[in-house]
Amino acid sequence: MTKRACIIGWPVAHSRSPLIHNYWIKQHGLDAEYRREEVAPDAFGDFVKNLRDHGYVGANVTVPHKEAALALTQPDERARAVGAANTLWDADGTLRSTNTDVEGFLANLDSATPGWDRGLENAVVLGAGGGARAVVFALLARDVQRVYVVNRTIERAKILQKQFGARVKPAAWDEITGLLGSAGLLVNTTSLGMVGQPPLEINLRCPPSLVVTDLVYSPLVTKLLATARERGLRTADGLGMLLHQAVRGFELWFGVKPEVTAELRALVEADLREKVQEKLPAAKQEKVKTKPAKSQGNM
Fold first, then answer.
1. Which of 95, 118, 128, 294 could make an SS bond with 156 (beta carbons 3.0 to 4.6 A apart)?
2. Which segments constitute the SDH C-terminal domain (predicted)?
3. Predicted pLDDT of residue 205
């Protein structure tokens, strides 16, 4: 019998998850399928409660359903700590959930910048939303001593301190430059720098050992990452995290642990470039064609 999983969102047409999971399905010769399901918020609860009746052994969940998925399932520690679930699976009749952004974030850094956490004392996280919660949880799990959460509204950063403890340090936006002087890692979890959004403007006055990572993956190389690379800093991009966070769900649903390969990355990169080009004015499209984004060498 064909095993099926899906991505549930509203909207969901933009999701790259089918491209990733169906690549792995074909690679491993599985009798399986991964689909998109566009489900409105008022219909989400009923859809999830009857997931198996819809023919699915599990699902990914994207905006705006991640918090609702947490409440409708039996979440693990990671999902509860982050306050959102993005991966669901049926375990002997019980619908369970987790948040794979945590392991996706860590696996991407481990792959792109090996040794990034060795002796790491201070990290700076920009933003205080769901992505930031996953990143803070991950960094504390790797024994980072101080995680500075920088947000334009510092009250939101204080919420993360209350949730995760004293090692989380709320900070104002104008403190970034000073904090980077002693930081070993900078993480952007905001939408700044994304296609259609303003760029992230910060002064990268920092030690040469700073590692910079951006959760944004469209464009592939954000202004933050481009600036960091020009200064010789090690970087990890958002596409790597997207690919690595998909691994555990695939293993839970189909019983095979897939690998993030250079071939898969190139496939998704090409798709991203095509979608970015569609959004650009005609005068800029030739520039995209002639200057493809660079991929990380170890991906």
1. 128
2. 238-261
3. 86
